[in-house]
Amino acid sequence: MDVLIKWLSASYGTFQIVFFRSVFGLVPLSVLVASSGGIGLLRTSRPGGHVLRSLVGASALVCFFFAFKHMPLADVYAIHFAGPLFLTALSGPMLGEHVGWRRWSAVGVGFIGVVVMLRPGSGMFTPVALVPLLGAVFYAFAMIFVRKLSRTETNAAIVCYFTLTGVAVGAIGMIADWRTPDLAGFGLLAAVGILGGIAQIMMTQAFRSAPAAVLAPFEYSAMIWAVLFGYLVFADVPTSAVIVGALIVSASGLYILHRETRRPPRPVTETTGEAVAP
């Protein structure tokens, strides 16, 4: 999906891609809702919570899609890995979860990795490079709100209202930058949404079926695919600073997840830290 987004960004605006990602993301979601109990899954008693979570999640989408247009895939992915670090830092004040000194130390080391990637004083430290970092912050806030909503709301409701918000944000934002797609462009834009919707459902199911610590290595393996596709499709080669920084951030994130597995188990909810944000 991200390869297609970067490819399409040469011809279409960020908000237009967000719009199509969200509209066609409703297709697999509709199939899931229809096969899992119908429209009743979307009932909610917390519309305000959904609005807040959805706006933050849509902001993360816009940041990452914009970054894909201007930066190599691997660079965006590496900075995105800071999301779990921000999530850990926010979980104490916003969720009342205890964060011990070991995890705070891991967060600190992870931020050193982010600094290594951004390389203050070099060409990488630009406003564009800060956009995916801001996206990682939005992602962390979105996951905080997801954790809160998951106590009473279904996965289908959380994903549906987020996706509908993406449709609205994309529709408003693309008014000034609309370009009518040709048949091939329309097909690729539709593919972005369908692939994203399917991935959302698969990752949500994965996080319901296995501990986050088990799944984390697979999630961090996205860096491998970003480097591979970035090189094969766009001839991008990550710098040594990005690779080193990504390794530091990934190691910090994996250690935090390792510490999570040593905590007393929390009540099981329908949604944990799944990718219902971007």
UniProtKB/TrEMBL annotation:
The chain crosses the membrane at residues 20-42, 51-68, 74-92, 104-122, 128-146, 158-178, 184-202, 214-234, 240-257. It is a multi-pass membrane protein. Keywords: Membrane, Transmembrane, Transmembrane helix. This is DMT family transporter. It is found in: Membrane. Pfam families: EamA. Gene3D superfamilies: 1.10.3730.20. Signal peptide: none annotated. Belongs to the drug/metabolite transporter (DMT) superfamily. 10 TMS drug/metabolite exporter (DME) (TC 2.A.7.3) family. InterPro entries: EamA_dom, EmrE-like. It comes from Skermanella cutis. Residues 3-118, 130-252 form the EamA domain. It comes from the Bacteria. Coiled coil: none annotated.
